[in-house]
Amino acid sequence: MTIVVLSGIVCIVTGLFFLINKDTAWSWTQWSNRIKGVKSERTPEWETFANIGAGFLIVTGVFLCFVATMLQADEKERKFSGSTVTITNSNGNERRLTREELKEFLPK
Predict the structure, then answer these.
(1) Alpha carbons 12 and 58: distance in angstroms, whole number
(2) Which of 64, 67, 68, 76 can pair with 8 through a Cys bridge, CB separation 3.0 to 4.6 Å?
C-alpha cells in the first residue's frame, strides 16, 4: 500500500519539477539522445510534449494516491466485516452477532 502512495508522490514531484524546471528536463533529453546517438534540438514541439509528459506524471501520481486510498478504505471495510457486535435484549440476555447476522435485524 505504502509503495503505491510513494510511487504516486514520486510521480507528482517529478512532474512538477520538470514542469517548473524545463532546463533540467532539456538536459535530461540531451543526455538520453546522446546515448542513443540522436541529435537534440529544443523546439516548440519539444516544449509541448515536455508539458504533456509532466502533466501525465502529475495525473498518474494523483491517480495512484487515490487508488491507494480506496484500497486502504476497502481493507478497513473487510476488517470490520469480520467483527462482532454484542446486543442485549430487554430480558438482559446478551448475544454476539456478526455483521451478516446483524443485517437481519436492520430495516431493508
Answers:
(1) 4
(2) 64
11's grid cell: 510521480
Residue in 23, 64, 59 with CA at minimum distance from that of residue 42? 23
CB 100 within 8 A of CB 41: no
Q: What pTM was computed for the model? A: 0.63
Cβ proximity of 40 and 33 under 8 Å:
yes
- What is the per-residue pLDDT across 27-51, written as a single tens digit (0 to 9) for each? 999 999 999 999 999 999 999 999 9
In one-letter notation, the amino acid at residue 37 is: G
DSSP 8-56: HHHHHHHHHHHHH-HHHHHHHHHHHHHHHT------HHHHHHHHHHHHH
Distances (CA, A) of 70 to 4, 8, 23: 11, 14, 37
Q: What pLDDT digit, counting tens, does each position of 55-107 carry?
A: 999 999 999 999 888 877 666 555 555 566 677 777 878 877 777 777 777 77
